[in-house]
Design a protein that fits this description.
Strand content of chain B: under 5%
CATH architecture of chain A: Orthogonal Bundle
Order of helices and strands of chain A: HHH
Number of strands of chain A: 0
Oligomer: heterodimer
Strand order of the largest sheet of chain B: 1-2
Radius of gyration of chain B: 32 Å
Number of domains of chain A: 1
CATH class of chain A: Mainly Alpha
Distance between the termini of chain A: 54 Å
CATH topology of chain A: Helix Hairpins
Radius of gyration of chain A: 17 Å
Number of domains of chain B: 3
Shape of chain A: elongated
Distance between the termini of chain B: 79 Å
Chain lengths: 101, 641
């Protein structure tokens, strides 16, 4: 069986769902970052696959932009995470709320 | 002449505003002096205008500015000084000048001295607008203005429960009547297309009698409230809670006569509807007798005088109702002088007796209060209508009018009332000034009022004596505007019999009052004497139970109805719906605030929920667009267009 566009899109959807569940369920900030990465990369797969399907490079270029931005986001995020860990000794989301809603 | 018109109109306003600046500060003597000065300025201007009119000058008519102009409706701030309004202006400014000067002494020890002058001058301003306006709308503004000032002044001592009650009573009674007046004004506007006196009256003869009758009735309802005619009369006696100068100015000389002024001003209308005129005259005669009978037994000095005012207003309405407008205006003028004098005299007595109002507790005051005694006696003589005092000319004229117009019942009622008037006036004088000095029992040391107060009263005294001699000058002046019917009894013999008969009757009534209350010993009634237990005495002292009936059958049911409306309609429907809307917002906020916990995890969940919701909407919408034709087929199959 030849692997076509649909397979890539299904993979992308499955990864996106996994990432979405991770975003909703994870309480550890580090794991939350991982889940975000999975979300972004699932989209990247879709971009690359569709770009190849249409023979248009725009999608692949966009995937590169996403990778670059994801990298910088993680860099900033991890920096903040380390500072938070130094100050509070944990990176649990449950302890991060200060509002009293 | 326009300058004098503006001076007469606006100097009371300036006086009021000037005094109003100092209302929050302690008593300042110069406020009274400045206010009196400005009112006297208005009086002088009015006098100049009077001489201008008397010397045959043109009617002064000015239009200050446009007030309302919309479509066909055009109402200017227009003022007119003609023969009728100048008479009223003279009465108003003269009595108010006297009252202003008198008040400097009377309100001497009152904390609200400055405030009092502000209200009093505001009243004069409103009254001037009322009498000088050249259209019904301006009259109505003045009408409401005097009502407001009356409310302020009756309730001047607002810390007294009874005073605020009386003020509200007066205001509410007048509101009821003003509704009638307003309907009358609307009728005038709808049917004549204007509110200017001249044009409206010119258009009236071509209207149908039915419409004119309704107009006349509704305008007269307004007059009934302001002039306290039956059945809207109860407020006037209660209004005596106000300071005495207020009673003299507002509730004797000027405001209560505004109803008479309205009828006189609307004479072209009432001439067209003699039936309404007859009703007015009958009601006037009834009120004249009715009020006089209540004055016979009352034990409150000011209330007696108030009932007497009511009774005299009845006389005025008899004259106005029978078409003798100039006679009504003449009695209005003469009455203003002697009644204001009587009230101010009563004010002196009140001051001397430390606010004691029961004349049975006075007696023998003629020694310590000689000047007041003379003034009040002469005012009472004028009120009783003894020759040659003012009351003789005006009141006898009304009696003559009623007999010439062949209304013998009205004549006999009025004649009998004249006797009652003489009796209760001199009952009061006898009880206060003659007999034993009963006040000594109560440990009071009466003293005469300040000299300048007595001097201030003297113009009224002089006019109360000589006003009758102006009759012919006055007649020639006002008949330029009012119907010039001269009233002469046909035979000379009859005239003399009537006049002398009336005089003898009145003098006998006075003699009876003196015999009963001055010559024989008087004791303070304590509810045990034979007279006090008689039925007629009880009816009279309780004012025919009219206030009681109003209280029981109008006020109480109204209050109960209001309670029901409050609890059932207001609380359960109006308030509930408004509160319900507010509660929806509160509860949504309360229930959704957990969304905003600040917990990143929760917020991410909500974000995902939002994305899902938006995506599903997008999908549904996309499908709907795609299959729109099929959906239309299905819907038309279901019978939907």
């Amino acid at each position: 069986m030849e692997i076509g566009l649909n397979h890539y899109l299904v993979l992308s959807t499955i990864l996106f769902s996994i990432g979405l569940v991770g975003v909703m369920r994870r309480k550890n900030l580090l794991m939350l970052f991982f889940a975000t990465e999975i979300l972004l990369n699932s989209v990247n797969i879709a971009f690359a696959a569709i770009s190849h399907y249409y023979g248009d490079l725009t999608g692949q270029m966009f995937a590169f932009f996403v990778i670059a931005i994801a990298a910088s986001e993680v860099a900033v995020g991890l920096g903040l995470l380390i500072v938070w860990h130094k100050r509070h000794g944990n990176i649990d989301l449950e302890y991060m709320s200060t509002m009293r809603g | 002449m326009e300058l004098y018109l503006y001076l007469a109109l606006f100097s009371p306003l300036v006086s009021s505003l000037f005094s109003a600046l100092f209302t929050a500060t302690p008593k300042k003597q110069f406020i009274g002096i400045v206010a009196s000065g400005l009112i006297i300025l208005a009086f002088v201007s009015s006098t100049i205008l009077l001489t201008h009119i008397l010397s045959g000058g043109d009617v002064v008519h000015v239009e200050l500015m446009t007030w309302m102009a919309a479509g066909d409706l055009y109402i200017p701030f227009g003022f007119v000084v003609d023969q009728v309004s100048v008479t009223m202006m003279m009465v108003v400014t003269l009595v108010s000048s006297v009252v202003h000067v008198y008040s400097i002494g009377y309100m001497d020890h009152d904390k609200g001295f400055n405030r009092f002058f502000s209200y009093l001058s505001a009243f004069v301003f409103s009254m001037m607008i009322l009498v000088m306006s050249d259209n019904f709308a301006g009259l109505f503004i003045g009408w409401e203005g005097v009502g407001l000032c009356s409310w302020l002044l009756i309730g001047f001592w607002y810390h007294k429960e009874s005073a605020t009650w009386a003020a509200n009573e007066a205001f509410i009674m007048n509101r009821i009547a003003d509704l009638g007046m307003l309907i009358g004004l609307f009728l005038v506007y709808w049917n004549t297309g204007t509110l200017q006196y001249e044009q409206a009256f010119a258009a009236m003869p071509s209207l149908s009698t039915d419409i004119l009758t309704w107009m006349g009735i509704f305008l007269f309802i307004g007059a009934m409230g302001k002039s306290a005619q039956f059945p809207l009369h109860t407020w006037l006696a209660d209004a005596m809670e106000g300071p005495t100068p207020v009673s003299a100015l507002i509730h004797a000389a000027t405001m209560v006569t505004a109803g008479g002024y309205l009828v006189i001003r609307a004479n072209p209308l009432y001439d067209l509807i003699p039936n309404v005129g007859l009703f007015i005259a009958s009601l006037g005669a009834f009120v004249a007798f009715y009020a006089a009978s209540m004055a016979l037994v009352n034990r409150d000095m000011k209330r007696i005088i108030a009932y007497s005012t009511l009774s005299q207003l009845g006389y005025m309405f008899v004259a106005a109702g029978l078409g003798a407008y100039w006679v009504a205006l003449f009695h209005l003028m003469a009455h203003a002088f002697f009644k204001a004098l009587l009230f101010l005299g009563a004010g002196n007595v009140m001051h001397a007796m430390h606010d004691e109002l029961d004349p049975f507790k006075m007696g023998g005051l003629k020694k310590p209060m000689k000047a007041t005694f003379i003034m009040m006696t002469l005012a009472s003589v004028a009120l009783a209508g003894i020759f040659p005092f003012a009351g003789f000319f005006s009141k006898d004229l009304i009696l003559e009018v009623s007999i010439i117009e062949h209304h013998y019942i009205i004549y006999s009622v009025l004649l009998f009332t004249a006797g009652l008037t003489a009796f209760y006036s001199f009952r009061l004088v006898a009880l206060i000034f003659h007999g034993e000095e009963r006040y000594k029992l109560f440990g009071i040391h009466p003293h005469e009022a300040y000299k300048f107060m007595l001097v201030a009263m003297s113009p009224l005294l002089i006019l109360a004596i000589i006003a009758g001699s102006f009759k012919m000058t006055y007649f020639e002046m006002v008949t330029a505007l009012l119907p010039a019917t001269e009233y002469h009894v046909h035979s000379v013999a009859m005239y003399w019999i009537m006049t002398i008969g009336t005089q003898i009757f009145v003098i006998l009534a006075i003699a009876f009052a003196y015999k009963k209350y001055a010559m024989s010993p008087v004791t303070v009634p304590d509810g045990t004497s034979k007279m006090e237990n008689r039925l007629c005495y009880k009816i009279l002292i309780n004012q025919y139970y009219i206030p009681y009936i109003y209280q029981e059958y109008v006020v109480k049911p109204y209050r109960e109805l209001s309670t029901i409306f409050w609890k059932e309609i207001d609380m359960k429907i109006v308030d509930a719906s408004v509160d319900g809307i507010a509660k929806i917002f509160y509860s949504t906020g309360e229930n959704t605030r957990t969304m905003q916990s600040g917990n990143l995890s929760t917020m991410l969940k909500w974000m995902v929920a939002g994305i899902v919701a938006l995506l599903s909407l997008a999908v549904v919408f996309g499908l709907a667009v795609r299959y729109s034709d099929e959906i239309k087929v299905i819907l038309s199959g279901l019978g939907v267009q």
